[in-house]
Amino acid sequence: MAEERPLEEQVRFRVENRVAWITIDRPEVGNALSPPCRDRIRDLVNGLNTSYEARAIVLTATGEKMFCPGADLMYRREELERPEGVPDRAVGDAYRMMRDGQYTLFPAILDSDLPIIAAVNGTAAGMGSHLALACDLVVAADTAKFVEVFMRRGLIPDALGAYLLPRLVGPRLAKELVFFAEDIPADRALELGLVNRVVPAAGLAEAAREWAERLATGPTKAIGLAKWLINQSLDVDRQTMINNESWAVEVNTHTEDSREGVASFRERRQPEWKGY
């Protein structure tokens, strides 16, 4: 069983050149996410906000076939004892399971202070597709594909799919992708705006590394504030956006990188960003 391996081997973590690499490594289940693996990704992303050991994140997976097919449906949760007569599944159980589970992971990615790149090496289906789409940038191998698989199993889209998809492709096309649940090859995903770049599979890691290391040498706080503003822009009215932008400018002016940017302009030299 996958759970017999240490959790650190199922979701690997390393930092190189100020880039944090989070790699799903569960080939025995096609890189499906168990709750402990899901929560490890969340905790790693959240921890990087305050550790300052990295200034960009790459989220990827091992192998060439699967990025992530979604939740590990074979994972056996510990069943809590219930009073006699209480059913195994009562109204409210699924809501709490979702709220306290996957809906703690996706806000961690969307709200991270750091830019996150998904390097999609294979099929991303269901929650696995949304895991990639929640990232700030998506680089896909030319062999990758995305699948809104839910209707194939009579399920409702979850993992913020109904939030992410309309914002990426518009509501009408989002309905098409969800209703028909067809495979979306990498080149089609690029046309639709689901991904930023498609590269040969052999060059995926290098393409992700190139972008991530560029981001990791940039003005990290300004990038994080820009990410927050862009994510907010589709959810708020114009006046709120004016306030948000004003506060973001206020916060950014107190960073060392903001002062360095002005100084380097005046001194006619390249800035040296520190990330804070």
Chart the SSEs and their pairings.
Layout: H1 7-10, E1 11-16, E2 19-24, H2 35-51, E3 56-61, E4 66-68, H3 93-100, H4 102-110, E5 116-120, E6 123-125, H5 127-133, E7 137-141, E8 145-147, H6 161-169, H7 171-180, E9 183-185, H8 186-192, E10 197-199, H9 204-216, H10 220-233, H11 238-252, H12 256-266
Parallel strand pairs: 2-3, 3-5, 4-6, 5-7, 6-8, 7-10
Antiparallel strand pairs: 1-2, 8-9
Helix pairs in contact: 2-4, 6-7, 10-11
How would you describe what is shown here?
- There is one protein chain.
- The chain has 276 residues and is an alpha/beta fold.
- The chain folds into two domains: 2-216, 2-enoyl-CoA Hydratase, Chain A, domain 1 (Alpha-Beta Complex), CATH 3.90.226.10; 220-266, Lyase 2-enoyl-coa Hydratase, Chain  A, domain 2, CATH 1.10.12.
- Helices cover 45% and strands 16% of the residues.
- The chain has twelve helices and ten strands.
- The chain has helices at residues 7-10, 35-51, 93-100, 102-110, 127-133, 161-169, 171-180, 186-192, 204-216, 220-233, 238-252, 256-266; strands at residues 11-16, 19-24, 56-61, 66-68, 116-120, 123-125, 137-141, 145-147, 183-185, 197-199.
- The strands form two sheets. A six-stranded mixed sheet has the order 1-2-3-5-7-10, with helices on both faces. It has a four-stranded mixed sheet with strand order 4-6-8-9.
- A hairpin with a 2-residue loop joins strand 1 (11-16) and strand 2.
- Helix 10 (220-233) runs antiparallel to helix 11 (238-252).
